Write the structure tokens for this entry.
Amino acid sequence: QVQLVESGGGLVQPGGSLNLSCAASGFSFRQWYISWVRQAPGKGLEWIADADNDGTGTYADSVKGRFTISRDNAKNTVALRMNSLRPEDTALYYCVRGGYNTVLTGTYVRGQGTQVTVAS
């Protein structure tokens, strides 16, 4: 079955960096855009980035210039490099099968999430 498994979250100080990873299985990975979305405490789901089939990234304004998405189609993985982290980046981060438009539909497959906490 379709499966997405996130890893790499943790506690980091403001200004620090983290690398998240998403391992995908059960579908033709290279045929799908992959997104990262996040949900902060008490807030709705926020799309933050997606990678097209070749790995070209598109970003939400809130993370543009600080986060970088990449993918390895040979390994069926997607990474999110997060730099210059801020307390407002604290959230549960999920990878999603599909791009921005898929996330907008509200119907998609996502992983269980990995927690990122930015605090000093």
The beta strands are 3-7, 10-12, 18-25, 34-39, 45-51, 57-59, 67-72, 77-82, 91-97, 114-118. The mean pLDDT is 97. Helices lie at 100-105. The first helix runs from residue 100 to 105.
